[in-house]
Structures are given as structure tokens and as C-alpha cells.
Amino acid sequence: MAEVEDDDMLLKSSLCVSEDVGKIMEMIEQLKILVDNASTVEKAYENFWEMLSNFQEQSHLLDGHLDVILSELVDVVMNPKSSNIKNEAFKYLHTVMKVRGYKRAVRYMSHEVKDFTIFTSVFF
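User: That's the sequence. What structure does it adopt?
Assistant: C-alpha cells below.
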């Protein structure tokens, strides 16, 4: 009986994570559009942070979806429509790395030199 309840909890947890990741992906897609209004951008970032903060204690739940999330964010950074979008994408990347940890997140990012120059240009 306890095994059945554990299986039900695991299934509900898995469905909840999938729903949350879907919402996170929608927020990243909206990032490409929302850069016109500063208050809208800030509200979108707050929603993104709130959604990811749900994974603070169990960040390993993001591992199965981390490659998709990071690839979308890196795509926004590599092909920005404006510098504001690029800056916001870096804020989102920072948030993902803060929640999951940079050592885990870096595994899913490109290690090519051409990509490195884009990321270092933000800091120097």
C-alpha cells in the first residue's frame, strides 16, 4: 500500500515538474518579445525567479530539462535582437546557475572558443 502511494506521489511530482518547466520555457520565449517595457521585463524576471526558486531545495529535478532551458537561453544570448534582450538573457542564465549550480549547468553549455568570446564580452 505504501509503495502505491509513493508511486502516486512520484507521478504527481513528475507531472508538476513538467508543467513548471513548460512555464519556464514560455517565460524564455516571452523574453524575446518583452524588452520594450522596463516594468514588464522586471515583472517577467520576478516570475522566472519565483518559478525557479521552487526548485531551490530539490534542484536535481531540473536536470532532465536543463539542456533545453540552457540551450534556449544561450540561443537568445547568441542571437539577440537588442542588447537589452542579451542582458536579460544573462540574468536568466545567472538565475538558472544560481539554482542548479554552475558546475552542473556548464556541462550543458558550449565549450567552443567562438562562444566563449561572446560570454566574456559581457564581463569586460
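DSSP finds six helices and no strands in the chain.
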